[in-house]
Amino acid sequence: MIGIFDSGSGGLTVLSAIRDRFPSIDVLYYGDIKNAPYGSKSREELSALTVHALKFLSDRGCRSIVSACNSVSASLAVSLFDSFDVGLEHLIEMVGPTVRAFRGTKARLALCATPATIQSGIYQNAFTMIGKQVEYISIDNLAGAIEFGKSESEIEGIVRQAFPEYVQEKFDVLILACTHYPLVLDVFKRVLGDKVSIFDPALVVAERVETQLWPREMGDGKTHFAISQDSPHFRTLVERLFPNTTYEIEVVE
Ligand code: DGL
Questions:
Q1: Alpha-carbon span 126 to 120, nearest angstrom
Q2: CATH for 2-94+203-251?
Q3: CB 27 within 8 A of CB 224
């Protein structure tokens, strides 16, 4: 069984891509809604929350972990994994597969993410290593607005403010480096028009899950959700994204 975690419902976009590629994998999904959004938290807070999520998943028997949260990427220290029964070869995170997808490409890139992700410098370091210059756009409050089901017009207002015309002229591919953002893909498309293509990292992360964990993690395709606070919005999203799946949603401490 693999464990997937995020601050809430963002990781569902990654789970959905994984299910498409690897239907037989057994999944325990942990959404820490009680502490969402993660993107405005300090590095110390995020490290503590990461340890908590890993411990939860590891205690429940997950030996492979997918971090479906960009904001904690800088907290996934190599040394952390020695404390759990999770080997590094059993960890999949968002940054590596995303950056790798642009190695050797000519596209003019922009990347938008939460303040925590941008401030961590993790994408900046990785893109610098492959010699790519990228425009970085930090969007405050967007993941929270999506998590807590704010209206589409409110969400569109936040996205419009982040992408004034002069910023849009600088890139032709936009990377959505927050797993919540693909949940409002239509809003991004409306704001950016058809001159910009939008890249959802969930696809390359799912591909990595398949190459790295198949066939070791082959199971019966079971799906179990554990959330740290009940949320009707989360339940609705799960229903919408996984209409033909049998699952349980458990509210945990
Ligand atoms: N979906 C997460 C990410 O990719 C967390 C967003 C948040 O909770 O602020 O960064």
A1: 12
A2: 3.40.50.1860
A3: yes
Q: What is the DSSP letter of 213?
A: H
Question: Whole-angstrom Cα distance, residue 96 to residue 252?
Answer: 30
Check if 2-94+203-251 and 95-201 are the same fold. yes
Domain range 95-201, CATH class:
alpha beta
What are the tens digits of pLDDT across the range 62-99?
Answer: 989 999 999 999 888 766 677 777 777 889 999 999 99
Name all residues whose Cβ lies below 6 A of ligand 1. Answer: 6-7, 10, 36-39, 69-71, 114, 117, 143, 178-180
The domains of the chain are located at: 2-94+203-251, 95-201
What phi and psi, each to the nearest 5 degrees, are found at residue 11?
A: -65, -15
CA of 137 to the centre of ligand 1 (A): 14
Mutate to test the pocket of ligand 1, among 9, 13, 70, 229 (most ligand atoms within 8 A of CB): 70
Helix (H, G, I), strand (E, B) or coil at 155: helix
